[in-house]
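Sample entry (753 residues):
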Amino acid sequence: MADSNPSINDEIDVVHRSCTLCEAHCGVSVAVDRVQGRVVDVRGDERDVMSRGYVCPKVVGMSALSEDPDRLRTPVKRVNGEFIEIDWDEALDLVVSRLTQLRDTHGPNSLAIYLGNPNAHDFASNLSMPVLIRALETRWRFSATSVDQLPKMLSSCLLFGSPSAFAVPDIDRTDFLLVLGANPMASNGSIMTAPDMPGRLRRLRERGGRLVVVDPRRSETARLADEHLSIRPGTDALFLFALVHVLFEEGHVDLKRVSEQATGLEELRALALEFSPEAVAAATGIAASETRELAREFAAAPSAACYGRIGTCTQEFGTLASWLVDVLNTITGNLDRPGGVMFPRPAHAPPEFSTRRKGRVPYGRWHTRVRSLPEFGGELPVAALAEEIDTPGDDRVRALLTIAGNPVCSTPNSDRLDRALEGLEFMVSVDLYINETTRHADVILPTSAPLERPNYPMLFHGLSVRNHARWSPAVLEPPAGVRHLWEIAMELAGRMQGADAAAAEDLLLSNRLGVALGKGSPHSGVNEPQARRALDAWQGPSRILDLMLRTGPYGDGFQDGGEGLSLQALIDSKHGVDLGPLEPVLPEMLTTSSGRVELAPDLIVEDVERLRARLDRPTKGLVLVGRRHLRSNNSWMHNLRALSKGRERCILLVHPEDADRLGVTDGSRVSVSSRVGKVVAPVEITSDVMPGVVSLPHGFGHDRSGARLSVASEFQPGVNSNRLTDELRLDELSGNAVLNGIPVDVEVLRESP
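Predicted structure, serialized as tokens:
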């Protein structure tokens, strides 16, 4: 709703902020009736510096979340299988006493924590979760990361030195965009914050650019592309290696630029030698001639960007595929240059690259108990969570804290995890809902909805295709019995350490001040008392953010009257601040031990042997892949009537050739089974999937008793594809779950006579 809209009256306020329901974070204008305390309209903010008025259908879910009658509005505890309401003091006392008791009796690793996807969209959670994790003292840390982007984080760490060093496509200036395992027309971009993806792809085509999509399904993005290549699920690393092979073989490698940026070029050449297009064609399903032509086109383009996303991560060679995406960009000279892939410089980042630690890869410092799976970045693969609970032993997980997550829907072999949660001695959840996971909790602590809290998209400014900064003020007051996640985390952290929330918060601020103003910092001349006085205008996470902005690369440095950024300056810029296009930052931003891009790190080289063995494995049988819909991002969005209405979307896609062989017809119901489970789903016969591949969307399956999701269970219950995914199938290097390329059997359900 624009400021000049004539329908606005004295009782209506218009608040400009961003939508937090996916990674695009489009700018929205929210009209609020002050008298009634409710949202009356949400629409795109035409003056937003990034989205310029664009929004997708999910935007209506922002107000629907706050108004949902199923959401929790007071803490509850489970008594004899039923949830009863309790007050906050009783809830917090119970949680802390039980967690402390178990930790003291069985050790800190008897506790585990799981963080769900919504935490990534709440800057206050980004700041507070490390404090809570330290207070728990456990190494059993899990999150949605290991059913998503963990391989990309590991490969980025090995190549560039940091798990958060993501090279994103400079989509607004590129001449050639190669997309693998991604569907940005449905996702709005992922690990690539780019509002109005349809407009950006359209403008790419209008300026004469080329879009090529490699995917086992003719996705919404593939339909828009100049070319779509169907690939056998799980073989992206083979295909990418074949492209690299051609580039070396035919002399298309930018040797001068690469030698200035990187090490390991000759090792890479040797690794690629046996992965010729001819050698991999039978496995990938892509003709050698098509692979060779694509490699030549990519190398010849004035600028080009290769982009891989969740399909390249959630497969058995996820880390190798993610590594090869960046290898392809690097050896063609498209790393760190306009139109290629570049590194954002967010406003809250440290101002000087030189102050960052170098040469540390946080990998394998500890391992899971049962399968000895490696830690990376402080967390363990969530595919191991169920076995760490249900496998006997004195050091098994006995208590679980879930925060804004639903792993029973989103992690592999969900039935096993569902059963395992029943065996916990104590479980606490911080969530909006009693869902498929939280129904097992002994205590549920209700948290605020997105419109009820301020936000700064901290993680996503670090993934943006253009440098910018945006503050989102709260629009509504949270219900009286609800607290912000930040408040809950700090309260628990303080109590677990025998202190209070204020002490935990002050410790966090002190640590941040020490880093921001310490030796080697350009702000070392500012003393801590001076900085604290300037920050005292804010409370909680806003105070920490103000510190980060003031000492960031565009900050005012605590200079009175300075022109740089501060939180107040950001608040005053209601539609966001444009900080300009991405700019080259190499080699300064690299934190590898060599100070250069490391193209052939040891962990990667060792894992290539596993990929070689894939060449000799025959391709046979049906395999399952996932997909997503524009109207739903994760399972918790299915309880919003405005997003769940319409035709059934949880449908198994089957190619006509497979349908004929199986005796399947359009609309018939089939059983789909794997090693770990079985589901029943209706069929749509379509040539959009390649032969040998079937597809189910993720996030559905709202049919378990005890969950209070009335809309989801009524309108779109669907089936949970993670009843089919296998917790034993992992990308061995990262431990990320394999959610694509799962072997399945499909059988028609015969009616009883």
